[in-house]
Amino acid sequence: MVGVDIQNPTPDHVYWWSSDWEPIDRAMTGIETHASRMSAAMSVALLSVRLVMGLIFAVCAATVVGFVVFLRQLPSTEVKPPRDADGIVVLTGGSSRVSDAMELLSVGYGKRLLISGVHPASSAQEIQRSLPDSQALLGCCVDLDHSAVNTRSNATGTRRWVQERGFRSLIVVTSNYHMPRAIVELSHAMPDVALIPFPVVGDKWNDEPWWSSGAALRLLLLEYAKYVAAEFRVSLDRLGLGSTASEEPVPTPDLTRRSAASIN
Fold it and tell me: In this structure, which topology does domain 87-202+232-263 adopt according to CATH?
């Protein structure tokens, strides 16, 4: 028979049992707490991974969709401008751009032509030799700009030329894949000037589909990335969050805005 203390009726073996298991209970409680924390941490980690993967998928999907939209706006055939303009600007860098711009000038689509982005080593005589049928126009109605080194400086130089000439409308001549970015830069630099695109379609564009050529695909992907970057920068500028570098005047080299005839 187990003796019971009258003041404390709990049997002695109950004290022994409680004091012996108390450390184990604390240990089990600690293990359960640690397990709960680990489970919560794992849940947070899994949620973070899912969010990151979802973000990556969304960015990839947006990039693919944007690239498809970009490609769909590139014409596969050349179409004459719908109307005349005060001036014509051609952004150098692609085949037949300058000759196409000279043809537009010759039939009266504009009063003067600016060839923007002429290589510093290229002289007016070299341009005249490359366009032997346009000697008269080169002598009277063509200006050269050697200062532009990229599309953004093309826009800055063109703006100065347009302001000096008092033009209010401009036909823009460049390659079809380059036209979207050119319009972004030019419209940002000259918001009050009406821009009329004339996309030049190279011979290889239809002869060799871009998806069958690694070089063409790389070119289009690079141009799309530059186009997106330009759109983003221009959007920041419009919000007052971008740099004002594009508003700074560009030094005018000796040959800039001098007609080809004055270099003879």
Answer: Rossmann fold (3.40.50)
